[in-house]
Structures are given as C-alpha cells and as structure tokens.
Amino acid sequence: MKMRTTYMAYGLRISSEIQFPQLAQKSYDDVDLSITLGAVPSHLTDPEAILQGGEFAENELLLSAPGIGRFHVCDGKRITVEPAAGADMQSLHLHLLGSCAAAILHQRQETVLHASCVTRGATTFTLCGTSGAGKSTTAASFVLQGYSIISDDVTLINLDNGPIAVPSYPQGKLFRSSLELLNLSTDGATELRLKPDKFARELGESYCDRPKRLDAIVFLTISDSIHPQIRKLNAAETVRFLHKKTFRKRFIGKARLPEALRKWSLLAEQVPAYHLTRPSAGNSIDEVCSLVEGALAGTHG
C-alpha cells in the first residue's frame, strides 16, 4: 500500500499519495479529496467538450501535460495522477494545486477567482486579474505594509455562510522583476521549471490560515493611461467581471453554469467591487496600493 499524507488546501481535507512539501500536514479521519497514483484513461466515455490538452464532462476532467503527466479529476473528490517518465515533482505540484484543484472546486460548485487575497485587521479583499495584471505583485506590496496573504493567484470564495475568502496554501509566486521592484530577495525561493524567471516563495508568518469575510473585490487591468485609476462597479458590471475573472472558467460546464451565475450575482450584491486600471509601463505600485486603500476607506467611487 502506498503511503498517504493528509493536508489542508482550499478548505479541503486532502489525502494524497504524492507528497506536498508546500502544504501543512494535518491529521484527519475523513477527507474531502483523495489524490492517488495510477493509470489514467486515454479518453472519457462521453465528453461534453474537447479542451486544449484534455477532455471535459459534467463531473470528469481529463488533462494531459506532455513530459509531466496525465490527470483524471472526478466528482469533486478524486484525482488520479499518472506521471510521465522522468517528470519532476515541482511541475506535478503546479498542475495539481492549479488546474486540477480548480476543476475539483468547480465540480463542487464553488466560486473560484483568478485572484490573490490579502487581509489586515477587519479588512479583506481580493485582487483579481488575468496573468500579468499584477495580482501577486500588488498583494506582495500590501504584505510589506503589514497585510497577510490568504491566497496567491487562485482564490476560493465560499458563499454558504456569507462571502468568505478561504485560505489556499502558504506559498506565493513572483517573477524576478517583481521581486526586484519590491526589493525582495530570491534567497530561499525556488525558480519554477515551467515558468523560468518566476519564483515560488514560502509565505511563513505572512500567510493567514483562517477564513475571512470578504469586504471588497478589486479587478486589475492594464491600460495606456499615465496614472492608475479606480472606479466603483455596479452589480451588473461586477457579474460580468466575475465571469471574466473566474479561474479555469471552461471547467464549469453547461450544467453548472446557472448555479455559477447565481453565485456571481449573489456575490455582486453582497460585496462592493472596483475596477482599477494601471499603466502598462513604469512603476505605479505605490499609487495602486494607495488607490485601493482609499476606495476601501470610502474616499473613492
């Protein structure tokens, strides 16, 4: 029998045959997600859609990553992994804690945003955006101001007991340029093989492992403006942005889309949202942070 270790990530109790050094080990009698090593089918029996690198059905996802492995994600509670010959664990971890975790959460009909989330005192907010929008860099800048990180890049929002930001796991990722911008060292960081010049960093004491009520959503986009600008969104605009900034949205599927739309609408009604545009060139990180804090204090929009 293969050795299993239990962990917590994205609010899920996980039992895994793959070791995750970036996750805190926990002890559980019952688990929500099981990760096993084994054979993965070549195709799904009745796929709803053929995706780049995989196949999708209502409660199944088949993913293939050349040179890394193949992944079968089922029923919101099982992931089977068939590593490629010579695959490195770091790359397997990136897929399992990224795309595969998103698929599991979508199968469980959770709200999953392409966002980082930070908290300090009674204030918790997400920074949403596509890759390159500045989510992780802005979050890291807030950490330097005394905030803690709940999640980096992928944020789960639970709406069952109010809009709650759920901790992901205690690791952040930043490009070398962002580390230099914030005067942070690469000491102790690990360069990602799949994303050269990007580094994984353990968050340590700057990680918040407690769920927090969400106070605001900030959508980040890049523009040709000279200075960053922020404005408050109405509910309809917020729903459109939530749709666009959902992480791995293609994993939702037709059958779950009405429930996803209901939750986006509920979130838009309960949490104020803002759209912040930042210049594509230059260093505007201090202005961005100031605008966000000003909006949250009620001085904007």
Read across the widest sheet, the strand sequence of neighbours is 1-2-3-8-7-6-5-4
Taken together, the total number of domains comes to 2
- Largest sheet features: 8 strands, mixed
The level 1 CATH classification of the largest domain is Alpha Beta
User: Structural class per helix/strand content?
Assistant: alpha+beta
Mean pLDDT: 93
- Please count the helical segments: 6
What percent of residues are in strands? 25-35%
CATH-defined architecture of the largest domain:
3-Layer(aba) Sandwich
InterPro entries: P-loop_NTPase (IPR027417)
Organism: Pontixanthobacter gangjinensis
Protein name: Hpr(Ser) kinase/phosphatase
Report on this structure.
By secondary structure, the chain is of the alpha+beta class. The chain has 6 helices and 21 strands. The protein has helices at residues 89-107, 135-144, 176-181, 235-244, 257-270, 285-296, and strands at 5-9, 12-16, 33-37, 49-51, 54-57, 60-65, 69-74, 78-83, 111-113, 115-120, 123-128, 148-151, 155-158, 164-166, 171-175, 190-191, 198-202, 212-213, 216-223, 229-232, 273-279. Strands 1-2-3-8-7-6-5-4 form an 8-stranded mixed beta sheet, with helices on one face. The longest helix has 19 residues, at 89-107. The mean pLDDT is 93.
